[in-house]
Amino acid sequence: MDLNSVFTKSAKGVMELSSRANRLPRDLMKVLKLVDGKSTVRQLAEASGVSPVSLLLTMQKLEKDGYIKEFTPAGADRPANVKVSAASAPVGEAGDESLDFTIIMNPAPPAPESGGSRAEAVRRAREEVNQRAKAFAEARREADAMAQALASTQSRVDQAATALAKARLEADRHGKRLAECKAAAEAQGAKSRARLEALAGALAAAEAKAGTLAIAVEQACAQAQALAEACRYAELRTAALARALAAAEDGQKPELAQANSASEEQLRDLREARETADQLVQVLAKAREEALAESKALADAKNRIEAGAAARAEQVAAAVARAEREASALAAARRSVERAASEAAEAWNQAQAASQALAPLAARAQAEGLEADARALAATAAAAGARTWAGALADARPKQEAVIAALGEAVVHAKARAAALAEAVNAAEEDDQVEALKRTLHRAQAEIAALDEALSAAAGRLAELGQAHAQAEEQAGRFAEAARHARAEAERLRLESERRPREEEKQARQEQRFKTQAEAGRPSEEAETRNCPVPSPEKEEPRSPPAKVAPAAAPSWWHRRKAALGKWLGLSASLIVVGGVGLLHGVAWDFIVPAAQSIVSARLGEPVSVRTAYGAIFPTPQLRLEGVKVGRDGALTADVITVPGLAGLLGRSDEVTAISVENIVVSAAGLRRLAAWNTPARGSAVASLEKVSLRNVRLALEAVDVPPFDAELKLASDGTLQHISVKTVDGSVTGEIIPSEEGVRIQAHAHVWKMPFGAPLAFKSLEVKAAAAPGRLEVEQFDGLLYEGRVVGEGTLRWNGVWVMQGSAELTSVDVSALISAYLGNSPVSGSLKSKVRLLLQGNSLRSLFDAPSASGDFVVEKGRLTSVDLAKALRSASAEPWRGQTSFRELSGSMALSGNRYEFRNLKLTAGILNAAGVLEVAPDRSLSGRIRVEIRSEANPLQGLLAVSGTATQPLVRP
């Protein structure tokens, strides 16, 4: 097929032209009409003005589809000088299936002159045929390339034309939509203005009607008074006529009877007139009351609208001002707490400075040999420091209490403000300011939670300060007592040191006198006797010789020296003992490490290593084991194990009743071996242990981040656990664990707690009751406050090879916006959620348990709002563009199914006054939305219904017609 080909219509092409269906496109139909069975492709292109290549491609398509067929093969031109008769020509060279009658019509060629010339002619003809075939092939390749280029260009042109047409259509739709929106806005504005004008006109008409009715009522009252006067006058006249009738009854009976009849008829007319006047007065009074009531109602409605707007504005302004005041009060309270803590720290620094200032005096006194004075000075310094610290704590405590009171008052005010804002939100549910009020309410609730947390922290700090104050007072008392004893001892030693030289001097003088007398001898005594007067025998007492006095006095002196020497020896022994004990304080006791390792290893049934041990005397005797590791793999490590009392120092492990362990790290392997460690004590070495205190325990788990906690363990006489009390270091979670025959019973309470794994839910409070056994944890009940609502449920967790969790929960009055925001960061819906959910989780490990959750349940959201979608505007829109906005609703209900991180919402029903909607929705794992919603507006004036398509994301949904 080339540009010289001739085509003719096939039977299918003829039928297509004669048929009215016209299945072919317009351009192909136009080419089909051009085919006449005589003209070549080039001639048809020249006649129609179409590109030859494009026309050739079109005819190829028509030939392929069977609408035309080739009448003369391409390149069938006959050579000018070579003519073969029809009889001698081969059958295959006669042409194709179409009969070519041109061969018959041509004249017969002349007879060849010779065989050589005929062979030469045949050769030339073949060469010419080959050249034409090559030229035809080259032309065909060029035509194919050109056809492909033209087809590509035509495709791009068609696409551009389609895009242009679509853009024009979208522009037209957009313009139409803008015009409709503008018209709707103008109509709505006109309707609002007409409504306001009608309300003002009705109010003016009612006021005018009330004034007219007031005038009519006044006139009617005047007429009624006139009728009443006429009635009274008629009654007086009737009475006079009656008297006249009685006076002239005898002579004028007929006239009197006639007059009586006339007066009675007149009286009856007057009575009827009076009754009519009374009825008219009542009707007018009632009409006046109704008019006044209507006028008052209209005025009240107007005032109520204005007052409502002003009140809501005042409420918002007051709420903002109150929030600012409470924030200022909270900041002031925090500054007060920090200032009190700074003052306490400064007081403690002053006490330490005073103690350091007195330390040189004590050292100098000790260097001078006055140990008692040194102890007194040290005790005085310690007592002064303790009293200063206690005084600082006592001064800080009222400030802390005042701060806590201020925080409590702030919490009360914040809760009252939140309640007022909630009432304002309920009152202004249909107002445009409800969103601002709700945001203010959420901020107030967040401030309440922060204030509660600050109050709890301040209460904890106050309790710590109280304990520190009590400890400081106790320590100050001990130091004061020690100082008093030290001062008394120093005073006693001072007096004794002052008395001892006097006694020694007196004793020396006495010894010197005795020695002098012994050297003088007897002659002096006789001379003294002669010089003295001779007493009478009756009065003279026998005089003992001096030589016998010294031996009598000498034993008394030696006894006193022995007593003094005994006191000095006792004091020296006491100092030696105290010094020896003091040398033991803070010295490494590595000799006790093997015994301690064997005792703990025998208790746990695991190899135990201890890095070092220390003994301490002050302030209380205790033994410290540092660098403890349980198990060869370090399943449990602890920085310090403290054994209080003298029993640990003396190696009497059977008398140890309590120990304290600090900075513990337990691995996953250690957790699995806890049950094996809880066995009866092996031997009697630790049978007396009753209490174990654990501080700062950390669980080294990969799947979940457990916060550090403290624990108190109570042991039975055989060494098994009786009770465990647990409390996190930050105080947010407390719990009790009680061993039972099947396993353990668990009770836990959490305050302002966020789940460390799985769903990122933040509970205001949570109560849990559970039972654990090997490979199983059964939560019998959990009850918590979640996002201003309540959640109650139960569940079971099993981990026998495969981790499986299943359970159910019931949510009541939960803020659905906060719940969805915990997952997505932003919620497309708000309101109060009520739901029942069934949950099933499976995984090969605890970490993978939440990878593909499954859940199902029903839900109802009341008094809420779609924050990103305006269903009414989307339904009224004639454009395919997505619509954004808000849709308030009274109730949104449906069922939810979660499988493999894909959410399916079925049987969705939304009611919002005259607007109702129903549909289905799916949320893909990448949070993309798909679904459809049927919306209906039941309005008598302009009812509408239609189907909307949902797209976008979970945080930014889109709807379009």
TrEMBL record:
Region entry Disordered, spans: 491-553
InterPro entries named among the record's database cross-references: AsmA-related (IPR052894), WH_DNA-bd_sf (IPR036390)
Stretches of the chain forming a coiled coil according to its record: 256-340
Keywords attached to this entry: Coiled coil
Composition bias, Basic and acidic residues: 491-529
Swiss-Prot/TrEMBL GO biological process terms: regulation of protein targeting to membrane
GO CC, any one term: plasma membrane
PANTHER family with a match to the protein in the record: DUF748 DOMAIN-CONTAINING PROTEIN
Name of this chain's protein: Uncharacterized protein
Organism per entry: Pelomicrobium methylotrophicum
